[in-house]
Design a protein that fits this description.
Layout (H helix, E strand, L loop, with lengths): L4 H16 L20 H15 L5 H4 L5 H15 L5
């Protein structure tokens, strides 16, 4: 599956709104998951499960451990999706 950065951000925004009732206007690339959006470690696990469904790939805990902002999440998802992308000649 190939998603643009904007599509990843849009899906992430949907997940945050659906799962944790985070208002869309609070979801910016620089927003802190834990301080600004009030997610906790259990919420992060729930988010990882949703992202695994989106990417079709397992997200290793060490890959998500350093995630602090929305930008970090988008970057993590992009790396996972890039691993699936066919190699260009």
């Amino acid at each position: 599956m190939i998603l643009s950065r904007d599509e990843v951000l849009s899906k992430l925004t949907e997940f945050l709104e659906e799962l944790f009732e985070v208002p869309r206007n609070k979801v910016t690339l620089d927003a802190s998951l834990y301080e600004e959006l009030d997610l906790d470690s259990i919420d992060a696990v729930d988010l990882v499960v949703k992202l695994q469904g989106l990417t079709g790939r397992r997200i290793k805990p060490e890959e998500f451990k350093m995630v602090r902002t929305i930008r970090d999440v988008v970057d993590c998802v992009e790396r996972l999706l890039a691993a699936d992308a066919p190699v260009q000649p």
